[in-house]
Amino acid sequence: TLAMYMLHKKGFNVQLSWSMEGGRPGNMALMSYLNNKAFPQRKVPFWQTTHLNDMIPRTGESALSQNSSKLFGRDEYEVHFNNSDATKHVLCTDDDEASSRCGIYQFTRAQLDGTIPGPAHCALPFAPAGQMCMMVQTTDTQLYRLADQCFYGGSIR
Fold it and tell me: Over the Cα atoms of the chain, what is R_g?
């Protein structure tokens, strides 16, 4: 999200982009700008992907949370995958976190999984071989099929 913002500010023509399982990158003012003003030529500035009950896309806590003193804004456009089938997803465009029950917001904070690496964050149905993390800390090829590899660039099919 921040790379997209910086490239846009430097004059690059940033096309519709995806933020994969990232945490909240900025305060309310930055997120309002990205969600509503940065790309006036299109309705959706970018999609935030979420999977299962992954905690990472909901960190740090949103300023829109009830009784919150937090400063983070949130992505308004989400593609949520609640299983391992990439063709079965939900599009969420609600910008009111307090009333939203779509995608990652269907889970309470207590239900979120913060395990890294873990299936909620890493086992994305659209990632190469169904795995986003591919971390070298583990060689458990059953859990992380590409544990010994790094994957940078190229298309995600």
Answer: 16
Q: How far apart are CA 147 and CA 133, in angstroms?
A: 8
Give the end-to-end CA distance of the chain in Å, rounded to a whole number.
21
Q: What angle do CA 132, 136, 137 make, to 5 degrees?
A: 105
- C-beta contacts of 132-139 below 8 A and 24+ residues apart: 132/20, 132/21
What's at 59, amino acid-wise? T
For every one of its 157 residues, what pLDDT tens digit does the chain have, with 9 covering 90 and above? 788 888 888 999 888 888 888 888 888 888 888 888 888 888 888 899 999 999 999 887 776 666 556 678 888 899 999 988 889 999 888 655 444 688 898 998 899 998 877 888 888 888 766 777 765 455 555 554 544 444 444 334 4
What's the rounded Cα separation, in Å, for the pair 58 and 127? 20
SS3 state of residue 4: helix
Query: DSSP secondary-structure letter at 157?
Result: -
Residue type at position 123: A
> Where are any strands of DSSP class E within the chain?
17-20, 46-51, 78-81, 90-92
